[in-house]
Amino acid sequence: MSQFTARSVDRRLLMDRSVAGRRAMRLPQPDVPVAPLPGASMLRKELELPELSELELVRYFSLLSQLNFSIDTNFYPLGSCTMKYNPKLNDEMASLPGLSDIHPLQDGATVQGALRIMFELQEALGEITGLPGVCLSPLAGAQGEYAGLLVARAYHRSRNDLKRTVALIPDSAHGTNPASAAMAGLEVVTVPSDKNGNIDVQALRQHVDERTAVFMLTLPSTVGLFDPSILEITKTIHDAGGLVYADGANLNALLGLTRLGDLGFDIAHSNLHKTFSTPHGGGGPGAGPVLVSEALRRFLPTPVVQRADNQYRLAAPADSVGRLNGFHGSFGILVRAYTYIRTMGLEGMRQISENAIINANYIQVRLKSDYDLAFAGRYSMHEVVFSARKQKAKGASALDVAKRLIDYGVHPPTMYFPLIVPEALMVEPTETESKETLDQFIAIMQKIAREAEDTPEVLKSAPHDTPNSRLNEAAAARTPYLRWRRDGVAPAQSSAPAGVDAGDRR
Amino acid sequence: MAAENPKDLKYSKEHEWARVSGGSAVIGITHFAQDSLGDIVYVSIPGVGSNVRQFQKMGEVESVKAVSDLFSPLSGKVVERNEELLKNPETLNKAPFGGGWLIKVHLSDPAEIDNLMDAEAYDRHTADGH
CATH number of the domain that B27 lies in? Predict the structure, then answer.
């Protein structure tokens, strides 16, 4: 998949390359008064630093960057993560000096343009989702969830409705949902899915009562399906006095087609790094704005951007749940998302989702005889979930299929999620891929399906053509080997990749 | 690849097994369970002297895929636990019906055994991938 093989990669860490006395740069003359160093007790003598020339340093980091697997180099159908292409224009805008050289503590009067961008992004997200109250400050999707749940709690408290301490969450949910609910002090109760992958509405009714604070739902669901009972679900919760939360991870399927607010959701978060094309997966940071209905706006976190008399200012909502972090969010990421929305236009939003849905269903139709569908007989939304149970019966699991894809230059899809699907492979191509790329992926998946029949051992030992072959994930989790050690000795149970001996590694 | 489910064991829907003898039972997870979990990296089981209840959570097992709850197939007091397993959790993958046993329980209500499946019923239970 790349020009690198196990043999050609120079695995020496920075410290291994160090030669005493080498320098990559000269420190500039100090432009502040010279002050004495703190006492010897505060200085560590044993702290070793690598000494390299600039060229050696550049080679080291350039190599690492080339070992990266990214959307800029390869197809990356990682389900639920929406690994769409990130247009370079986004970065160009975020790099403008007027946006990158400002400070969060600067007087608002001197950064009106930046505040206007934030205000207009709030407005756009509110319009797209039908949830007009927006706070941009959450730094990731999970923090957006946490913020949204704090808003839900604040709402119930404001009504002196103190019994509502239960968060209902489907068994197909992202793991962050129960985690955020627990962090927000709510008790988590799991709601089962039915055999078609929808919420079991009968079971939901049995769980809903005067203790229900919030129902958290991903739409489309984590199995990539639009729940046809959604209006009945939101009504059921509202009738019982609860609120409905939308995990916006799958928002890429809904843009311009329907709005969460119109479906009865009260609160949502949007992962800008998924739907709105900002960097993702090590390229972060993320951003997970929290969005609420008009009635909940006064509980939003601080700050939000308001406009009055054509002036923009940071403000605290009347009954705010407070600050989530030091300033007002990942500003550079907000600029990128704003650029994307302005580039596409609100009218272009619908095209994004339509193409994402068409691409996923094209893959579904072309591959459904090679791999079982998790839920047959239904069209998918923006992602399609297969089950490799047919392959598993022949001896090659979903994991083996995923690892084999790496040999063909494709990033593995999400595996073993959602948990309700055995041997799950969740494929999300996104709208940015061409038909040619999809055809290529389909051909590779068909080839792997044949290999699973004929030569499952090839899958079981994949990947073969990468700098590291199959990793020992259990050992890596149990005894991670994360840093350079002076004695060059790895911990007893080394996480050395299978097939790479110790001499090769250090 | 499907290992036989031993005939002398009783099984729960949640894929635990119990080997009952006299007033006590040795408890573990099935081959099907370990195979679905994937490589197991961590096991948490109750200590000697604690009480477990039938079909209630008694511990956790963490694999490279996910953290899953362990449920006790029977009620009683823990009289022994597999200390070796805590040091070598991979034994659960290698020998789920043998060296990978979890705990030994002194049963408080032997009649509960009737709530469990025999090997044949458990074979049917797992046939459709659940």
Answer: 2.40.50.100
What are the distances in angstroms from CA A24 to CA A10, A11, A54? 20, 20, 4
Are A279 and A386 part of one and the same domain? no
Same domain, A254 and A320: yes
Tell me: do A112 and A138 sit in the same domain.
yes
Total residues found in chain A within this entry: 506
Shared domain check, A358 and A329: no
Distance from CA of B122 to the nearest CA of A (A): 18
Give me the helix-helix angle, A349-367 and A435-454, nearest 10°: 30
Report CB contact under 8 Å: A419, B38.
no
Strand order in the sheet with A372-373: A372-373, A384-387, A424-427, A414-415
Q: Give how many domains chain B has, as a whole number.
A: 1
Q: Which of residues 444-473 of A touch B (CB under 8 A)?
A: 473
pLDDT tens digits, A270-313:
999 999 999 986 666 899 999 999 999 999 999 999 999 999 99
pLDDT in tens, A155-174: 999 999 999 999 999 999 99
Which residues of A are less than 8 Å from B64 in CB distance?
Answer: 473-474, 477
Residues A60 and A145 in one domain: no
Query: What is the span of the domain harbouring residue A279?
Result: 102-344
Judge: A474–B36 Cβ closer than 8 Å, yes or no.
Answer: no
Of A368 and A8, more confident: A368
State the nearest Cα–Cα gap between B4 and chain A, in angstroms. Answer: 15
Q: Where are the alpha helices (DSSP H) in A130-162?
A: 141-158
- C-alpha A433/C-alpha A410 separation (Å) is 13
Integer Cα distance of A506 and A273 in angstroms: 35
Whether chain A has a CB inside 8 Å of the CB on B129: the answer is yes
User: Counting runs of H as helices and runs of E as strands, what totals does chain A give?
Assistant: 17, 13
Q: How far is B1 from chain A (nearest CA, A)?
A: 7
pLDDT digits (tens, 9 = 90+) for B30-59: 999 998 888 899 999 999 999 999 999 999
Question: Looking at the domain assignment, is residue B31 inside a domain?
Answer: yes
pLDDT in tens, A198-242: 999 999 999 999 999 999 999 999 999 999 999 999 999 999 999
**How much is the ipTM here?**
0.72
* Interface probe with A: pick from B31, B34, B36, B39, most Cβ of A within 10 Å: B39
Domain count, chain A: 4
Among residues 85-124 of chain B, which lie with CB inside 8 Å of chain A? 89-90
Residues A411, A322, single domain; the answer is no
By C-alpha distance, the chain A residue nearest B129 is A422
pTM value is: 0.87
